Amino acid sequence: MMVTWNTFSDTKESMVEFGFKVENLNMTASGSRTKFVDGGLEKHTQYIHRVTLTNLIPGSLYMYRCGSSYGWSSLFYFRALPSDPTPKGGIRFAVYGDMGNENPQALGRLQVEAQNGMYDAILHVGDFAYDMEQGNGTVGDEFMRQIETAAAYVPYMTCPGNHENAYNFSNYKNRFTMPMYEEVESLWYSWNIGTAHIISFSTEANFFSSQVVINNQMAWLQKDLEEATKPENRAKYPWIIAMGHKPMYCTWNTGVEDCAKIVGITREAFEDLFYKYGVDLYIGAHEHSYERMWPLYNNKVYNGSMDAPYTNPKAPVHIITGSAGNREPQSILLPPKSFTAFQTRDFGYTRFFILNSTHIHAEQVSDDKGGQIIDKFTLIKNQHGPEAWL
Ligand SMILES: [Fe+2]
Fold this sequence. Notes:
The protein is built from 8 helices and 25 strands. α1 packs across α2 (138-151). It folds into 2 domains: 2-78, Sandwich (Immunoglobulin-like), CATH 2.60.40; 84-389, Purple Acid Phosphatase, chain A, domain 2 (4-Layer Sandwich). The strands form 6 sheets. A 7-stranded mixed beta sheet has the order 14-15-16-17-21-18-22, covered by helices on one side. A 6-stranded mixed beta sheet has the order 13-11-9-23-24-25, with no helix packed on it. Strands 2, 3, 6, 7 and 8 form a 5-stranded antiparallel beta sheet that branches. By secondary structure, it is α+β, with helices and mostly antiparallel strands. The chain is globular and about 65 Å long. Bound molecules: fe (ii) ion.
């Protein structure tokens, strides 16, 4: 488990004290810190501390605090991930994008659920704070304090969105510590959990970064997918789930021609690659809506069968979940397209549960409707990989 925090002065040390009991935090881990200067005029400076806790006992509840002899955080807790890849209730996620410092509608419910141990991980699919660099980075500071009440209790896994692009994504790269942060500053990475291989990548590279970065990411994606689809790996982690901020399809419009034009750039860059390796589920955000689509490839709907479209579907399933709330308006409702299974502009977020190697269950929570589940679906596959498309 990686613990990341910031201090505004250089405290010289980065320590985590942890243990099984509040009165006995008998284990200590130390890490490192880096100086982060925001790109704004005031050169707002802080120190980002990172400590990795290793040799954790799967499923155990740990108490911890972070800091140093110069001062300590509040006491927090987390549960180490289970060793059983198919625990009762599945591996449980909350997933959303587009959460701001102002009007983070879904946050209150997520804080309670994260603290209550309802999730094994939270996935934030890009667009944070609106924007972290604003106020010389102080909006980012405030946003991190807001999400601490969820992110200190459960792994908070991220990918960059367009709102992170200032100063070459510096606030994103510095504030979050994802797998591969040392190599590519958390812009892309993959990890395995339960029966799933999860790929997080930057759709924004193709809008804001140099050709070198675009090429590096594509080469990494290709290599990662090749590795993940080797028979021995896919047998262990049959589900391949990709998350990137911008969707590949949508029927909404946030003011510009998103669904007509912008998503096409993402689709052209990544869709063929994901189809080729049999990616099962693509999670996007960016549109301030929730939209569930029929299995889709190359603008065409590929149902498994008419009465059970999510049973052995013939193409990846796409969802958009960008409704966590921010200062911008929700998306405008446009008529559904042929690929639309469900759409809503209610604020909210998605829960999904990887039950085992054949079943994923997902549900959409509406904050407008007091936490009511307004959509759900089960993705059933007894064959994974590109051969499943045949
Ligand atoms: Fe966005």
